Amino acid sequence: MSIVTISLLVLLSIVLIVILTSVTKLNAFASLFIVALLLAMITLPDKNVVEILKEGFGSTMASIGFLIIFGAIIAVVLEKTGGAISIANYILSKTGHGKAASAMGITGFVVGSTIFCDSRLFL
Prior knowledge:
Blueprint: H1 3-22, H2 28-43, H3 49-81, H4 83-95, H5 100-112, H6 117-122
Helix pairs in contact: 1-2, 4-5
């Protein structure tokens, strides 16, 4: 397949993702997965796409899976116990109500760090 054909397929895939998420209101993860699977089946007709998917996803989960799971657990605990609200109120008290947007950004960074701890660990 030529580079032009693959480029057009990628652009078409982006358009399809936008249509699936905005028009049909399909979940973003499901849209990305479906379009990526279709693109792989079109561009890799001689290869076993399911085996490639299993190998890639399996190696990713083997390396960072537990970090993602534990980070998500901490995030849910912060949400259910009210810890996230406490953190937000503390940061808002330090920045002042005039800088509520900055406080919200800082809160998102602090609370979101539990979910994205795997990427920070690698950096």
